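Reviewers asked in the last cycle whether our approach scales beyond single polypeptides. To address this, we selected a multi-component target totalling 736 residues and predicted its structure end to end. The input consisted of the following lines:
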Amino acid sequence: MKISIKRDFDFIEYNVDMQDATLLEVIETIKTEQDSSLAYSSGCRSSVCGSCSMRVNEKEVLACAYKVQDGDVVEPLKNVEVIRDLVVNMDKALATKKRAKTWLQTYNKEAKLTHEDEKTNALQSDCILCGSCYSACPVYAVNEAFLGPFALTGVWKYVSDKREAAPEEKIETIQKNGVWDCTLCNECTLVCPQNISSKADIEKLRMRSSMAGYSDPNFAQNFGGGLSF
Amino acid sequence: MITDVLIIGAGGAGLTAALAAKDAGASVRVLTKEYPTRSQTCMAQGGMNAALGNVSPDSVEEHIQNTLKSAHGQANEEAVRYMCSEAPNAIEWLDEIGVCFSRTPDGKIAQRKLGGASAPRACYAQDYTGLKILHTLYERCLKEDIEIHNERYLLDLLTKEDGSICGALILNIRSGELEHHFAKSVVLASGGYSRIYDKYSTNSTASTGDGIAAAARIGAKLLGMEFVQFHPTGLKNSSILISESARGEGGYLLNSKGERFVNELAPRDEVSRAINEQILAGEEVFLDIRHLGEAFIDENLPQERKLALLYEKVDPVKDLIPIKAVAHYTMGGIEVDNKSQTSVSGLFACGECANHKVHGANRLGGNSLLEIIVFGREAGKSAAHYTFCDDKSKNELNCKKETNFLDKLKSFSNEIDFYEKRSYVGELFYKKVGIIRKESELLEAQKEIQLLKEQLPLMGVKDTSKVYNTNLVEFIEFRNMLDVCEAVVSAALERKESCGAHFVAEG
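The resulting structure, written as C-alpha cells, was:
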C-alpha cells in the first residue's frame, strides 16, 4: 500500500505493508522503521487529545481515527503555520479562545442546572481542540482576525450555561470578527470528529446577538444609505 | 527574568497548581512538552470521587476507609483524610468555574459507582470527565492570564551550589534551541511513567516519566515505584482504554466459555490478576455490555462504543469486547510531604509524577482526578509560599554548571536502533515486571535494563535537524524511561511480599 506525505518541500511516497490500520499506526511505523526524520504530533491514540489532526485527500481527519486507503495523500492542517512536515503551530489558533473569552466570567450562584440544562451544551463541551474546523474554515483566506469556529462554539457553551451571570458581555465580545463574519458554509461541521456544528452554534449566537440589539454589519452597510437623504 | 514559580507540565495538576500559585500572588510560568489540552488528564473517563451522597447515602469517612483499604497499608492516613475531606470543595470549585458535570433528574451532580467504592461516589461528565475538567482549567488559566509556553521539553532541573532548586534547562522543540528558565521554586506536574510498558499501556505516548527521571538526577527521593496499576479493560489489540464506568454501569467480564470469573467491581489489582490468570490458562477475556442496551450505551458510554468499533471492529451493542489488562497508572513517583514539597529544597511535585501517599499500592478509580485538583492546589500554594518565605529562594542564583545530555549525545554512534529497543523494553516489562512478578524474572529484567543503559552511547538519533526533531525528543524520553525502569525493577526486587499491584509469585 502506498501513501504520500507532504514533507517540508514536497510529497514523499511511502510503501507500507499494513492491513486495516489507522493512519497514525501507519505514520508511526514509517517513523520507527523507515524514516526517523518524519515529524508529526500524536498522543492518546483514542480521539480525545486532538494532537493528530491532519488532512487526508484534502479533508481534515484525526490520524488515530482514520483507516488508511491505498493512495491517500496526507498534508498538515491549513490556516496555521507549518513548523515541520505534519506539525503545525497551534498558538495562533488557540489564541482565538482568549480573544473570544471562552470561559465562565461571572458565576451565578443562584443557577441550578437540571438534567435538561446539561444537554444544552454537553456536545459543545466535547470539543477536543484538534483544530480541524479552524483548518477547514474558508473565512481565514480573507480575514485573519476571525475568531473562528471552535472559539465561537466555546462562546456558545458559556452563553448557554445558566451558571454564567453575564452572557451579554460575551455577546458583545463576538460582534467584531465574530458571528457576522462567518459565511455559514458549514465546512467546520463536516470535518468535526466530535460531531459538533459550529455553524449551528454561530447561528444561535447571531440570534442572541439580534435579541441583544446587535445587527449584521454587512446588512447595515448594504442598506445603510437609505436613511441619509 | 526570574519567575517566582515555574510549573513543568500542564495537565490537570499543573494547571491547578498554576492557578493556585497565581492566586497566592506569585508570578507563574507554565511549560509543557505538548499543549495543555493534550495532556494525559484528557483521557480520564470514569469520574472524580467526592462523598456528596447525591445518589445514595455516603460519607467522607467511608471514602477515607475505601481509599485506605485499597492502598494496602502503603498510604499515609493524614494525607488520605485531607484529600477525601477536600473532595466536596474541589467539586464545588470545578462546578463554579464551569465544568459540565452530568446531573441527576433533580439537578444535583450525578454520581456513579466505581470499583472498590462503597457508594456511588464518582462525579462525572458522561465519559469525558477528564477532558471537560482539563479544558475548563485551561480556560480558567486563559482568563487569569497565566503564562503558558507550549512544546518545551524538560532536559534537566537546575540547582544551586547549596542543592536548592533554581530552574530548568529546556529544549524548545520548535526551534531546537536550549532555554534556561530560572525560578525561585519549581513545581513538577509532568505525569506518570506507564509508557515504559510501551504498547501494553493505555497511556498517551507522552507519559514517559521525564520529570521523575530529572528529579531523581538532582537527588529527589522516589517512593513506591514498584506500584504500577494495570487496568483490567484495555482493548486486546491496541491497549486503548475502555473505562471502568463500563463495569460500574453493570458490564460483565466473561471468558471464552461465557463464564463470569471475578467480581467486576473488586479493586483493579484483583480484577487484573483474575483476567491475567484466564489469559495464561488459554482463555480469551471479554467485556460484555450488550445487556445495557443501545440507548444507554450511547448516552453514557459513547466513547467506548466508538473505540471498540474502530480498533477491534466490534459493536458493543451486539458484540463482546475483547480485552486484556494493561499498564494504566503509576502510583509511585517523587516522594512529597503533605505540602507537596520534595526532598529537594524549592522543588514541589503533584499529580501522577508525585507520590503523595494517597494511593499506596493500588489507586481507586476516581481518586486520580481528585488528587490532581486537591494536591495541585496544595503544590501551587506551597511553591508560592516558599518563594515568599524561604531564605533559600532569595539566595543568589548560582546555578551549578553541568554538561547536559544533549552535549554528550553528539558523540553517540547510532549502531543500535532505539525504537526497536523501546518496544523490546515494553515486552520485557509486561512479561517480567508486570501483573505477576517472580524474583528470578525481575533479576533478568534488571540485567537487561543495565545492559541497555550501557548501550545508550551506541544508540542516538538519526535525524540531525534542529527544528521539531521528534527523533531527538523520543530518544531523550527513552533515556528517561530506562532510568525509570531501573527504579521500578529495583523497588520491585526490594519488596519481597505481595502488596496491592505488586504481586509476587514463587520462582
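The mean pLDDT of chain B is 95. We regard this as preliminary and will revisit it once experimental data from Aim 1 are available.
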